[in-house]
User: Fold this.
Amino acid sequence: MKKVVFLCVVIVISLYFFISKKSDYKEIIFGSSLSIQGTNKQLGNEVVEGINTYFKYINDNNGIKNKSIKFIYYDDKYEPQNTLVNTKKLIKNKNLFGLLGYIGTPTVKKILPIIGDIPFIAPYTGASFLRTTTKTNIINLRSSYKEEIESIVNYLYDSKHIRRFAIFYQNDDYGIDNYNAIVEALNKKNLKLTGEGTYKRNTLSIKHALLEIKKTNPQAIILAGAYKPSAIFIKHVRENFTNNVIFVPISFVNANALIKELDYKGINIIFSQTVPSYTNKNLLIAQEYLELLQKYYPNSKPSFASFEGFISAKIVVRALRNIKGDITQDKFLNNLKNFRDLDLDGITINYKNNQLLNQVYLLYFKNKKFYQINGKKSNDNCI
Assistant:
């Protein structure tokens, strides 16, 4: 009897090992769940366009070891329960190679318990739990919210002499992560948070937050929400506050969608980003992105979110092409983790802190363009 049980265990383990080490992919499929509809739809659509732009280019140029690469995705409307349903659908696909480009902190948190060892690459969130996880199959692209917030506070404190900070944030895991980050960053300056205001995810109800923050008379307000409620909030602050408040939306807010909602009025706004500006003519990868986006999505405008999706797709392809022999998930993950000081056409890829990009860019908007702020002596007169 013991021999039979032992044999069954060996067979099960061997079967699992065979499945997990599968290498006979006819095509390399990445799946995602993101917001295609709802208050955050522009972000989701832009990430899809960025990823597909590079994948389509690769498929038009013999693919990866003569295999095509495919991106399939489902709309979750930025609701965690929908993300869970979508992810279960994705992982039932026996040919799924990895998960790529998920959007949102609460949505990602919801599905982590069910993804197993499937490569989970470049989620569009700077959540702290994705940087401290012990799961070896999760690899982030972007810098964390903690790094973003600290860069913002340091810049405003040192160059703008700001001492009164407030935060407008989404009342969920995403917003709370940023709230904790600003409290920690201010503590390092021996400062306390002056004011705070929250709103509920997937709503535009910002009145209570506005009233709470107005009482505190802040000099700067960091925004950690979606672009539509953030835009409404900024408009109301401009109409009701007497002082010239500086607004700093973090990268998830979506700078392109936000500035459009504000009728391209960028006065007193600093935009935090985790990728450089796609308008930087000195970056080969930015030039490539603009050319290929025009080719495959001629009716779409470039954006930071789309550019980030493009970069993530390019890194994925680089890692796949570096694989020797059969393509497996383990080899793919190991290649990503071995990227050290890799020059990806002007962007340095360096795997550390469980992420591949480790920089924060602060920009302002003027004359219909985004410009990078270069240190304390930057010519950022619009802010």
